[in-house]
Each structure stands twice: as structure tokens, then as C-alpha cells.
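Forwarding the complex inputs:
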Amino acid sequence: MPNLPDPILLAIPAFIALIVAEMIYARVTGRAQFEPSDTAASLTMGLGNTVSGLALGFVAVAWFTYLERFALLEIGYVWWAFALAFVLDDFVYYWAHRMAHTVRWWWADHVVHHSSQHYNLSTALRQPWLSPLTLKFIFFGSWLVLIGFPPAMVAFVGALNLVYQFWIHTEVVKRLPYPVEMVMNTPSHHRVHHATNPCYLDSNFAGVFIIWDRLFGTFVPESATEPCRYGIVKNLGTHNPMVICLHEWWGIVKDVRSARSPREVIGYWLGPPGWSPDGSRDCSKTIKKKWHALQSAQPVDVDEQSETGPEQAAPAE
Amino acid sequence: MNDPLILILVLIASAVSITGLVLLNRWLGGWQPARLESPAGAATCLSNDIVGFRAGETALFDQGTGAFVMEQGGDRLGLVWTRGARFVTRVLSDGDVASVDREGRTLTLKLCDYTFSRMEAVMADEAEAELWAERLNGFLRAEGGRDAQPA
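Prediction (whole assembly, two chains):
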């Protein structure tokens, strides 16, 4: 077995250099924005994610070591296997990511990454602390190992996938050439994914290749007339990392405690984020439905609306 | 990362890098605290975040740091609050407020929402503060009532 390097560890200096470059570029051009308290929160979440990965990662390692013996094929460390594993891993990533937005148990973990109202390279590092405990790796990480790809190869291509996703968290890069936008996940596509505008909710789940969204009907292009508003549907009133990390978990605990039947327990736990037994809360689907109903009843001129909007996100001169 | 020494060095370097990046961010600036200039701004914030919310009577806080907005023809109260360069909004329904205290023209509001639990609003004058305190009292949680949940 070759001694595969850790792509994320190797990329850390580049991450830091690119964040510094984007910060300076943002200051000079005003085309992006960094806010110290938000940056601090994002980077602290990133560091916590690394620490928790080291502390809790053994759960996943143990699982894949156990699973390897049931593999259907014996695929060696050959170049085409790396390439195939990279593409298949990205396919699995698409579904895992989609489920992370539609199942509250996994959303409670993933919401951390979406909790910033800014969108810059530091947002890429705003990552959850408790991911291994959600057992998502069992449901989504097992497939490639069961096919026969070595766990170390799967971990390696998975890390490459995450490294790729770093640079797309930026407002600095507008649109790339058409063929790239057609095939690859780009800053434009991923801005849409991070936006809370109703028309953008639950779209563009891709990691590296946007083709999965195009294939499975979740692709939404960025519109010049609908600027992205970042964050979550109910933005947090704090930059406290503990609240960022735990708020949705705490929400699940409180809701499950208030449940009056097993159906309600399941709904609060595994239903879509925002699910409630009486429908009094809004989940993405209902928000989109309400928004579409409103649009057809009373068309809104987005340009006109943004002109009367609040003084938000204005970079200092 | 199997070598504990490398691990410790990576963690220390990460902590130093984070501190450095945040200090650089502070030094460079490039952002301004969000401010509401008009009731229309508050209405836009709320209609953006809460689909279908139609703003009615609005009171901006001193310095434009936020606003209370009654819903037109509805029984909800919209809240806009600045958090750095951005705004956070909430729409309050019956039982969403834990307590309201008024001291002169300052209102201290505690919400049954652990992601946005407390805020202070300095109103234009005491009469306005009293009026909105009264309205907010209408959303007080009953003893032993539920907590608002984030979604």
C-alpha cells in the first residue's frame, strides 16, 4: 500500500495564503467582504473540525477497516482506480450533501457550514465538530469500500474533493468560461447553494462536478437580477462557536422532548429541517411554495426592491 | 498526522494563523456596521427573510441599529437587528418573548430563542419605548410555556 499524503494538511499553507490574498483584494476592490468576528468564528470552527476529526475519526477508521473484508472486488492502487474513485466519490458526495440538507439529523451538523452571512474563503473552513457522530460515513462512505476501493484511496480522493471545494467559496470570481460552468462546480454555482433567497434554496449540491445537479434536477443558475443573500433561513444572533456548533442539535433535543407520538419524534429527528407536526414552521419546500405563490400573485421587481434595501454589506472606502 | 509532535505543531501553527488572519482582517477593515436608514430598509429585510411578511407600522432604533415592525393586517411583530455588517431578523408570535424591561427609552428584550436570546433597543423617545414595550408584552410566554425553536 502506498503511503498517501494528506491533501488537506498539504493544502493548509495555500488556504492561508489565499485567504490573505482575498482579504487584501477585498479591501482594495470592495468585491468581497470579511468581518473580523465572522472570520474568527469560521476559522475557529475549522480548527475545531480538525481537532474533532482527530478525536472522533477513529470511529470511521474502525468502521472502514471492518468493512473492507466484505469488499466485492480487489482494486489496487492503479491510476485509473484513483480517477474512478474520485468521480464515484463525488457522486456519493452529491447525495450525502443533498441528504445533509433534507434530513434534520444531518442538517444539524451541516448547518454549521452555512451559518455565516458572509461568503468568502474563510467560510469554506467553517466546518462542524461532530460529523463522525452523525454516522453519515456509514450510509454514504461505505459504498466505495464495499465495491473494492481501498479505504485509504477513498479517504484520499475524499480529501481532494474537499480541497477542490475551498476555492469556490468566493465572490471574487464571477463566471468562468462556459464549458467549465457546464461541468464543474464553480464559485457562481456554489454561491447559489449558500444563498437563502427562496428561489435558490436546496440547489447545487455538487462537490466537484455540477453535472450531478444537472442530472438530478437540482441545478439552479445564479441570476444577475437575484443577488445571493447568504446564511441560513433563520440566521444566528451570535458568533459564539458553541452556539454555531450545537444550536440545531439543541433544537432537535427540545423538539423531541416535546413530541407527543413516535411519528412526531421521527419527524423532528429525520424529517426535513423546519418540519413540525402542525406545519406551523417553514421548511424549504413550503418557503419556496409561498414564494412562488407570491410571485405569481404579485410580481416583484427585484432591482427596484434592492434599491430601497437597507445599508448592508457596504464595504468601507 | 500520526506523529504527535507534528500534530501539536500543526495545531499551534493553526491557532497562530487564525489569530494572525483575524488581526489582519481588523487592520485592513473593509466593512461597516449595518445600519437601517429607513422603515423601507427594515421592511425589505423582513420580506427577504420571511416570505409574505408585509410591513406595517415601523419604529427604527436609535442609530438605525434595528427596528420593530408590526405586520400589516397580521398578529406578528417583526424584529430586525444588526449583527456586524449584516442584519438578523425574527418574527415574533404569541409566546416568543420571555421578558420586556423598559428603562427610559431603552427596551431590553429577552426572547425564547437560544440563537438570539437578548437584545437592547434604544427608541426615539420614552413614549415610543412605552408603546412598543406594551406591544411586546402581548407576545410574552405564559408560565411554563414552550420555547421558540430555530428551524
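Confidence is low (pLDDT under 50) at residues 145-151 of chain B.
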